[in-house]
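Subject: Interface between my chains keeps coming out wrong

I've been trying for a while to get a sensible model of this assembly. When I model each chain on its own everything looks fine, but I need the whole thing in one frame so I can look at the contacts. Pasting all components below, labels as-is. Any help appreciated, I'm running out of ideas.
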Amino acid sequence: MAPATLLLKGGTLIDGTGAPRRNGDLLIAAGRIAAMGAAETAGTVVDCTGLVISPGFIDSHSHSDLQVMENLPEKIRQGVTTEVVGNCGFSAYPARADRKALHEFANGIFRGDDGWGWTSAAEYLGEVERRTRFASVVSLVGHGSLRIAAAGPKLGALSEREQDTMEGCLEDALTGGAAGFSTGLMYAPGSSAPSEELERCCRVVARHGKTYATHIRGYSFHLEEAIEEQLDLTRKSGCRLQISHFQTVGRMNWDRQQHALERIERARAEGIDVEFDCYPYVAGSTVATQLLPQWTLDGGMEALLARLADTAQRESIASETIAGLPHRWEDVVISAVGSSRNEAVVGRNVQQIAEMRSNEPVEALMDLIAEEQGAVNIISFNQSEDNLRQSLCHPLSSVISDGFYVHGRPHPRLYGTFPRLLGTVCREKKWMPLEEAVHKVTMKPAERFHIDRRGVLKEGFAADIVVFDPETVDSPATFDNPQVYPEGIYAVLRNGEAVWKSEVWRGLSPER
Ligand SMILES: [Zn+2]
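Reply #2:
Try treating it as a single job with all components included. I did that and got this:
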């Protein structure tokens, strides 16, 4: 049985608001924060001298839509007690009777199979409620998933009837418990949606007072136009806007970032409720089909494979892929493949693979996608360190993992985002004070997504707590060796219950 009360004694309280740290006790009773400052109790007492006590972290951009139900260790060991899923247009609902198109669309991001069976937001959230122990789950409904439910995987403008069906599904998801709406405007079929379609969806979101999070149409050559489109949608519809994983992709685009941020700042000054988020790494991670022109996915994976097999179409795919590439081929590393026969390419960049195969890089990439029937994931080294620092430290940014599970080598952010922020970013690089970093992963995202009574150390709030050592906290996970757990995270409590305890914590706690 859980103790009647738990007193975390003599710790350093960082409360999530951004206020300076102070020394004090924190008393937990019945799953909530009962008192702060100096407290007396008859229950369990843990001496937290030298340790930081902060709110549980909120990962406000996660792709663990399916994995949250498996209670896996990667997030809880970083101190994450709330996950916002359903990002970049991918949600695990709504689904029609024929689920093939939805699974084909989303499984590359979800590492899913065919075994997920709910149809609506309410059913998905019910399943999460029954199965998830480590995190509170907040879900956005994805535009790609909605569009597939309304019209299948086709590209281009929807008919009036399809648009109505989609808006009806969106309405249903928002009343069924979804916290907002997301788009993934670089992923087919969502990428083919005209602005008018999105504007109509945003009006529904605004009516419900919820949040719109967007993976914009481009982060490289057209970053500023892509941001402007989203600001304009928000201006017209009145919804709250969150620009997802803000960054400037590709070295030839790095000087665009300043202008892009200025646009966001001007929109704020004009009264638009816009903020953004970013992850603390210079490399990003996605599916390899992202490198191809998205019209190639019109009609789904079978249609793409047929196009790659057709000599004339393959030539135009190759030239458009090269023209659209903001990187060098050395900057793109294969992180996972669907089958075992191509395991040798995992961890190598596309240039190296081309050399292994005595072929051009673009040909090697297209061959690999065809051999694996699309099941190829990449990590690409997108950003400059200066730009990363600027976006992480910007007063409008939250910090996210954007982590997802793959069959192969994941991006290290899946294992290390939050401890890396506290250790490498704050303690080593000194890019921002610890109080500010904690704010960016607690109260700030709680406000963006209207997460009630979490994200701040305050009497009456849920006792979602992380206890960590500010001198040692960090993530040893690297791109070559990403599957390593963090250091310095001693205990993680969700609703007052210790769901992760380190050896150090077991030594400190009389409960064991
Ligand atoms: Zn995204």
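Reply #3:
Confirming on my end. The mean pLDDT is 95.
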